[in-house]
């Protein structure tokens, strides 16, 4: 477009015959804002004009409009009385710069083979351009003018039932260690302090349990080994009890969820069904494990249209561009202002959007020039900023809950069961 490594100045104006100052020799270009012509200065100080891209386009494109295939996927394209969205605005401005009209045709997103789909569309002259797709080698395409990232999307993990809080405090390995150590301590305690027989072993276990619950136990001995054993039991029981109580209080006062799905490996481990078009599988073509998984668990569909199923199906995931996910995520919020969907990072791949055209289309270069103009002058960035969604944020103080009787479901239930069992045994013993 007339730029050279020596270019230092850009002169913008309406003068059709620009004259460069002598000291601007070979350092400036002139852009005529009325005609779109670009003038450059040669080594002799004279001006010459480069070819006008608009004129090139008009000489090769005889019609007064172009037809563009689009698919409904907010915020790129949607209906709000009129056609709106990122795609609509970019295409309208681009065609205004080319001084031609644009006709929009709605088509559903192709979920099958893209090359076969585009071949059919262009062979039947359904449209001149298919908008916002990734480059396809079998067709002509513009330079990428917009970017997004593709992410896995799953249902937000559900809250842990309160009755599980008493067991979720420690992991399984800690629970097993506690049970083993309590049993071992009880056994050693019994053999060293009470009796060499096992008749009174439950009494030793009861004493150890009392210490774990920080209840008093009076015992005197002159044996150093027994004293050391007693100190060890007291210290261990105190530490475990302290950890348990602090963790239990933390869980009861907060909002706790089941383990989240945080990667594609976790999706496969949980055998989740994935709603995907075939075109996304290309990103996993070198992963045999993923391809075998898709053969069994893929549901072919358009993620933008099937997104509403994910929050209400426990074992379903999909993949969406980040911009589409955040545009719709505010629709999927429960009564506590918690999102029903989560996006998984890092992204699967960077998406480079361009326009797909038939081979040899005269539209390619003019579209590249005007889209490049919109990029360079910040128009596309401005349009994207207009559709940036503010995510509904939850007040963090709502996650801190007061302890109520509802939180004490498990101990109260065990208490009632214990009273019932003790009462039954008491009635049985009283009859004997």
**Amino-to-carboxy terminus distance:** 108 Å
Summarize the amount of helix as a percent range: 25-40%
Topology as a string of helices (H) and strands (E) = EEEEHEEEHEHEEEHHHHHEHEHEHEHHH
* Counted beta strands: 15
Oligomer: single chain
The Rg value, from CA coordinates, equals 36 Å
Parts with pLDDT < 50 across at least 5 consecutive residues: 42-53
What is the tally of helical segments?
14
Largest sheet: 9 strands, mixed
Question: Main traits of this protein?
Answer:
receptor, cell membrane, 14 helices, Insect_Ionotropic_Sensory_Rcpt, elongated, four-stranded mixed β-sheet, nine-stranded mixed β-sheet
Could you characterize the architecture of this molecule?
It is a multi-pass membrane protein. This is Ionotropic receptor. Its main location: membrane. InterPro entries: Insect_Ionotropic_Sensory_Rcpt. This protein is α/β, with parallel strands linked by helices. It is built from 14 helices and 15 strands. Strands 5, 8, 9, 10, 11, 12, 13, 14 and 15 form a 9-stranded mixed sheet that branches. The protein has a 4-stranded mixed sheet with strand order 1-2-3-4, with no helix packed on it. Strands 6-7 form a two-stranded antiparallel sheet. Helix 9 links the parallel strand 12 and strand 13. It starts with 8 loop residues before the first strand and ends with a helix. About 3% of the residues have low confidence.
């Amino acid at each position: 477009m007339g730029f050279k490594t020596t270019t230092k100045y850009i002169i913008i104006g309406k003068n059709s015959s620009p004259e460069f100052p002598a000291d601007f020799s070979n350092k400036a270009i002139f852009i005529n804002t009325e005609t779109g012509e670009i003038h450059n200065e040669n080594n002799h100080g004279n001006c010459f004009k480069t070819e006008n891209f608009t004129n090139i386009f008009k000489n090769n494109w005889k019609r007064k409009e172009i037809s563009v295939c689009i698919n409904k996927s907010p915020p790129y394209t949607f209906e709000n009385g009129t056609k709106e969205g990122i795609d609509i605005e970019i295409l309208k401005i681009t065609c205004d710069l080319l001084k031609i009209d644009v006709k929009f045709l709605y088509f559903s997103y192709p979920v099958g083979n893209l090359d076969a789909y585009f071949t059919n569309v262009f062979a039947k002259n359904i449209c001149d351009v298919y908008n916002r797709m990734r480059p396809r080698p079998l067709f002509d395409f513009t330079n990428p003018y917009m970017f997004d990232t593709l992410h896995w999307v799953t249902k937000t993990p559900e809250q842990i039932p309160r009755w599980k809080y008493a067991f979720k405090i420690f992991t399984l390995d800690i629970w097993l260690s506690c049970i083993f150590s309590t049993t071992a301590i009880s056994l050693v305690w019994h053999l060293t302090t009470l009796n060499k027989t096992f008749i009174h072993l439950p009494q030793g276990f009861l004493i150890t349990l009392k210490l774990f619950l920080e209840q008093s136990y009076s015992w005197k001995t002159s044996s150093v080994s027994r004293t050391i054993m007693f100190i060890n039991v007291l210290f261990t029981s105190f530490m475990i009890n302290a950890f348990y109580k602090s963790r239990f209080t933390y869980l009861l006062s907060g909002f706790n969820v089941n383990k989240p799905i945080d990667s594609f490996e976790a999706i496969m481990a949980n055998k989740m069904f994935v709603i995907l078009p075939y075109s996304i599988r290309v990103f996993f073509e070198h992963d045999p494990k993923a391809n075998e998984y898709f053969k069994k668990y893929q549901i072919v569909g358009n993620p933008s249209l099937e997104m509403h199923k994910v929050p209400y199906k426990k074992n379903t995931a999909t993949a969406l561009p980040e911009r589409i996910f955040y545009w719709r995520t505010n629709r999927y919020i429960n009564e506590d202002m918690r999102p029903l969907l989560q996006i998984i990072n890092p992204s699967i791949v960077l998406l480079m959007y361009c326009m797909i055209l038939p081979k040899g289309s005269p539209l390619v270069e003019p579209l590249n020039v005007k889209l490049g103009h919109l990029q360079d002058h910040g128009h596309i960035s401005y349009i994207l900023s207009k559709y940036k969604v503010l995510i509904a944020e939850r007040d963090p103080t709502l996650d801190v809950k007061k302890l109520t009787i509802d939180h004490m479901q498990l101990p109260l239930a065990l208490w009632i069961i214990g009273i019932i069992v003790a009462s039954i045994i008491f009635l049985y013993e009283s009859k004997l």
